[in-house]
Amino acid sequence: MVLQTFLLGALTMGGWVAAAFFFRFWRSTKDRLFLFFAGAFLTLSVDWAALALTNPMAETRHYVFAIRLFAFLLIIVGIVEKNRKRDRS
C-alpha cells in the first residue's frame, strides 16, 4: 500500500513535469496541440494525486475513468484540431 502511494506520487510529479514542458513548448511555438497535451497531463496528475490521497484500490470506480476519459479526449481533440488546420490551408 505504501509503495503504491509512493508510485502514484511519482506519477503525479511526472505529470506536472510533462505538463510544464508542453506548456513551455506552447509558449514558444503557439501551437495549440502542446496546450492540449499540457492540459491532459495536468488532468492525469489530478487523477493520480486523488488516488494517492484517497483509496488507491478505488481505481476501478467510474469517476476515476471519467477523469481519464477527459484527459484522453483532450489529446484526441488536440490531434484532430491540428490535422484539420493543416487540411484547410
Write up this protein.
With 89 residues, this protein is an all-alpha fold. The protein has one domain. It has three helices and no strands. Helix 1 packs antiparallel against helix 2 and helix 2 runs antiparallel to helix 3. The longest helix has 28 residues. The model has no long low-confidence stretch (mean pLDDT 90).
Could you give a short description of this structure?
The protein has 89 residues and is mainly α. The protein has one domain (2-88). It is 87% helix and 0% strand.
Number of domains: 1
Q: Which residues sit in consecutive blocks of at least 5 with pLDDT less than 50?
A: none
What series of H and E elements makes up the topology?
Answer: HHH
Q: What class would the helix/strand composition place it in?
A: mainly alpha
Shape: elongated
Major β-sheet profile: none
Helix amount: over 70%
The fraction of residues in strands falls at: under 5%
Mean of all residue-level pLDDT scores: 90
Number of helices: 3
Distance between the termini: 52 Å
Task: Provide the gyration radius in Å.
Answer: 15 Å
Q: Tell me the total number of β-strands.
A: 0
Explain the layout of strands and helices.
Blueprint: H1 2-29, H2 32-53, H3 62-88
Helix pairs in contact: 1-2, 2-3
Keywords for this entry:
89 residues, mainly alpha, 0% strand
